[in-house]
Write a structure and sequence with these properties.
single chain, about 475 residues, alpha+beta, 8-stranded antiparallel beta sheet, 8 helices, about 25% helix, rod-shaped
C-alpha cells in the first residue's frame, strides 16, 4: 500500500512539474503606466467625439404649480453641442484590469420646450450647461478562444454635480418655477447615456482594435509564429503583463516541441512604454521548426564563391589536401552540401547571444552530365555570436563566426593522406564568405512582433538577460486617414 501511494504521489508531482513548466510563456509583452497614459490620450479623444454625438430622449411630464395649477411640459430636440473631458486618469487595478477616471467634465446642450397651462400654449428654446461631470469605469481584460485579447466594461458610473438650464421665449418664466424638476430629469437622462456611450465605444472601437493584434504571423513560406495568449492579461500595481505562447512552427507539418520555455525574470526598469521579453525558447523553436521542415540545408557551388577569393570550388583545389582527387576526378567542379544533423540551439545570457552549431559538409564532384560523385563528409563545429535589434516592427539579427573546428566523418576517396587541418582554412572561408552572408540576409528580414495596427516603435532599448532578450520601446500610434 505504501509503494502504491508513493507511485501515485510521484506521478502527481511529475505531472505538476510538467504543467508548471508548460505554463511559462515564450514571449511576454509588458505595458507600463507610461504606455497606458499614451493609449489613454487617444482613447479619450475618441470618447469625446462619441459623447458629442449622444442622442438624448425627449422629456415630458406634468408639474403642479401653486395657484396656477397643473402645467404640461415637453422638452424635445435635445442637441449636445459640446462635451469636453479635460481631466482623465487611467489606473492599474491589480488582478482586475484597468480603471479610467474622468473628472470635471462639462457639456453644453440646447433644445426646444413646449408648455400647456389651461388654455395657454407656448414654446421656445433653452440652453443647458452641465458641469462637474465625473465618470468612472472599470475595463476587464480577457482572451477569446483563438487566444486574442478581449476588453469589456465591467462597471461604470456617472455623476453630475451641477446642471443649469436657461429658457427663452414667451412664458419661459413658467419653467423657472419648476426648473429643478426639469434639471433633475435632464441630469438623469445624461448620466444614463454617458455610460451607454462609453460601453458602446469600447465595443465599437477598442475591442476591434485589440483584435488586430496577430495570433499567428508568418516568418516566411516555411515557418510561422504562434502569438496566442496563454492566459488573460494580468494587471499589477506597476504594469500590465500579457503572456504569449511565443512558439514557432512549421507551416507544412506540426511537430510537438520536445522542450519547454524557461522562466523569465524581468528587470524593474519601466522607463519605456512597452517591453517585449523574447525567450530563448522562441528562437530555439524557430530553429527546430526550420530543421523539421528540412530548411537547414544549403548547397554551395563555384558560382557562389566570390570572384575575389583566390581558390575555386573544384577538385584541383582540394587535391592539395586529398591527392587522390587528381587521379579519380581530375579538374572537375565540386558541390558542397551543408546540413545540420540537429537543430542548433542558442543560449541567451547577460553577456549576449551565442550558439555552437554543428554543420555536416558533404562534398561531391560534378560529372559533365550533372550527376554527382560523393567525395567526403566532414563536420564543422564552431562558436557563433549574435546581435539583435528591432526595425520596422520586426526583430532582426546578425551572426558573427568565432573559432571553428573541422573533423573528418567519412571519405569515399581514401583517408590515408586526408589533410583535414589544412582544409579547415578553406572551409572557414566558405562559411564566412558564402554561408554567413546568406544566413544574415535571412535574419535581416526579421521576425514580426505582435503589434496592433498603426503602431510604430521608437527609442529602442535592447538588453540581454538570463534566457531572454528584452526590447523596450516607446510607441507612436498613427490613425488611418479619415478615422
Amino acid at each position: 500500500m505504501g509503494m502504491r501511494s508513493l507511485l501515485v504521489a510521484s506521478t502527481v508531482l511529475a505531472l505538476g512539474l510538467a504543467l508548471t513548466g508548460a505554463t511559462n510563456p515564450g514571449f511576454v509583452v509588458r505595458i507600463t503606466q507610461a504606455g497606458l497614459d499614451y493609449a489613454k490620450q487617444h482613447g479619450v479623444a475618441v470618447l469625446e467625439k462619441e459623447l458629442a454625438q449622444l442622442k438624448l430622449q425627449d422629456i415630458s411630464g406634468d408639474s403642479r404649480i401653486p395657484v396656477l395649477g397643473k402645467v404640461r411640459y415637453e422638452i424635445s430636440r435635445l442637441n449636445l453641442r459640446n462635451f469636453q473631458l479635460p481631466h482623465s486618469q487611467i489606473s492599474l487595478v491589480p488582478n482586475e484590469g484597468l480603471q479610467v477616471s474622468i473628472s470635471n467634465a462639462f457639456a453644453e446642450l440646447d433644445g426646444n420646450w413646449r408648455v400647456k397651462l389651461r388654455f395657454l400654449r407656448h414654446h421656445g428654446s433653452f440652453n443647458l450647461n452641465v458641469e462637474h461631470i465625473y465618470i468612472k469605469t472599470t475595463l476587464k481584460l480577457g482572451r477569446d478562444a483563438s487566444g486574442k485579447p478581449t476588453i469589456d466594461v465591467s462597471a461604470c458610473s456617472t455623476s453630475i454635480s451641477n446642471v443649469r438650464v436657461r429658457f427663452s421665449g414667451k412664458l419661459s418664466w413658467l419653467y423657472n418655477l419648476f426648473h429643478k424638476t426639469i434639471e433633475s430629469k435632464l441630469k438623469k437622462n445624461l448620466e444614463d447615456k454617458v455610460c451607454e456611450s462609453l460601453s458602446s465605444s469600447v465595443r465599437r472601437y477598442l475591442q476591434p482594435y485589440l483584435q488586430t493584434v496577430p495570433v499567428t504571423a508568418k516568418i516566411d513560406t516555411t515557418v510561422g509564429i504562434d502569438y496566442s495568449l496563454t492566459a488573460p492579461p494580468v494587471a499589477t500595481a506597476q504594469f500590465l503583463n500579457a503572456d504569449l505562447k511565443g512558439e514557432c512552427f512549421s507551416l507544412a507539418q506540426h511537430t510537438a516541441i520536445p522542450f519547454t520555455p524557461p522562466a523569465l525574470a524581468f528587470p524593474p526598469d519601466h522607463s519605456r512604454m512597452v517591453y517585449f521579453g523574447v525567450s530563448s525558447y522562441f528562437f530555439n523553436t524557430a530553429s527546430f521548426a526550420y530543421h523539421t521542415a528540412g530548411a537547414l540545408v544549403f548547397e554551395i557551388t563555384d558560382s557562389m564563391i566570390p570572384k575575389d577569393i583566390e581558390f575555386r570550388l573544384n577538385t584541383s583545389t582540394f587535391a592539395a589536401f586529398l591527392p587522390q582527387l587528381d587521379e579519380m576526378y581530375p579538374n572537375m567542379p565540386m558541390k558542397l552540401r551543408l546540413s545540420a544533423p540537429s537543430a542548433p540551439f542558442l543560449s541567451i545570457g547577460p553577456d549576449g547571444v551565442s550558439l555552437q552549431p554543428v554543420v555536416d559538409i558533404q562534398a561531391y564532384a560534378i560529372y559533365p552530365n550533372g550527376s554527382l560523385a560523393p567525395l567526403f563528409l566532414v563536420s564543422l563545429t564552431g562558436n557563433v555570436s549574435a546581435t539583435a535589434d528591432v526595425r520596422s516592427g520586426r526583430m532582426v539579427g546578425s551572426l558573427a563566426l568565432g573559432r571553428m573546428k573541422l573533423t573528418l566523418k567519412h571519405s569515399d576517396v581514401g583517408t590515408g593522406t586526408f589533410k583535414v587541418k589544412m582544409m579547415q582554412s578553406i572551409m572557414n572561408i566558405v562559411a564566412s564568405s558564402v554561408l554567413l552572408p546568406r544566413l544574415n540576409e535571412r535574419l535581416g528580414k526579421g521576425f514580426p512582433l505582435p503589434l496592433p495596427a498603426q503602431v510604430q516603435l521608437s527609442d529602442l532599448l535592447v538588453q540581454f538577460h538570463e534566457n531572454f532578450l528584452l526590447f523596450g520601446a516607446n510607441v507612436h500610434y498613427q490613425p488611418r486617414q479619415g478615422r
